[in-house]
Amino acid sequence: MADIYGRNYWKRIIFTFCIGWVVIWVYRSMLSPVYTEIQGTIGEQTNAAMGLISSCYFFGYTALQIPSGWLVDRFGQKRVLIPGFLIFAAGATLIATANSLTSIYLGSVLAGVGCGVYYGAAFSLTAQHVPTDKKGVGTAIVNSGSALGMILGMTGSSYIVKQLNLPWQTMVFISAGLILFMVLWYVIMLKDNMAEKRALRKNNTETASTTISHEKNETVTTTTERPRLFSLRFIACYILYFCTCYAYYMIVTWLPSFLETERGISGGMIGLIVSMISVTAIPGALLFSRISDKKREKKNLVITFLEICAFVLIAISMFAPNAGVLAIILLLYGLLGKLAVDPVLISYMSDQADPKSIATTLGVFNFFGMASSVVAPALTGSIIDITGSGELGFYVGAALLAVGTILFALTNTRQKVTSI
User: Which are the contacts of 22, defined by CB distance < 8 A and separation ≥ 6?
Assistant: First the structure.
């Protein structure tokens, strides 16, 4: 592969998809700190209605996960990413020019649909080209773009709107410009691998026959078969990712409002405190992905440890007596939580998946994870409307995380892990 694409192509891939996540997360995180200002344009809304803005985006994003994985496996990453990000830019532009909540909902769905092509393309190309002994760290570097993007989106939106008193649409137009920049970047930096995909499909039957022949004549050296797409082990991984993402997106969507209405924190401090999650996310992801690269057969144990830590931190976050203690908890959550476990989970799934359909496998995996992000913002908003507080929403997130971790531990930590 290195001879075909160049020995340093994998480094270009890592950098490309890292900045891609930066752009995506600038968009994802920039609206929640300015919900009040948005209502100044479209009129006063319920918490559930405002939470639905995020849910609409993730509905479109989630709906595209499995189809986009299939499209990537069939046509290649470049031919799927470029039209997808053009739709993404159109959705962001529609939000920036919207005068009604309905238009914002529609723009959010379009943005989600366009962005929905990204996950399978990014991590299938990473799994394909990054050397095996650097796969975990490479995935962590790619994923670290989400942490940087969250910091820029949260703090940038809070600063531009709340400190500089500029219209909330300003940040959305900036986001649309960044998305269009990524389209040009993909055109220049990514190689078209359509011919490779066609050759792989053409040789599938012959390869399968050869594999069966070898299996009949060679000694089996492992006792664990590679899981199928909907094996019990993979289903447990899907549920775990659902629970992990639910807790995370509930925090990202509603913590700014919670801090303002229930903790009396306002202005630029909101974005700063919430972005604490991302401050330690990058070193946390790099640290634990490096450990998982060195101990590839122990990735499942690393995942279990990180999920237990995330559960404890979310559960105790509501007991924080002041902003300083809460900031420390969020720093630890960044180090040990969702952003740290993501690259290990993705690497784990890539190791277990059939190489011929890795984008589809990752698409199904991310579909289950992102399904929670459709539910979490709107459900948490409804809980706030009913109870008058966001605390119960945080407890629901912690409880789901405990359930997912237990199921994963029961199905994925008692067997030897296949690594490739």
Answer: 145, 146, 148, 149, 152
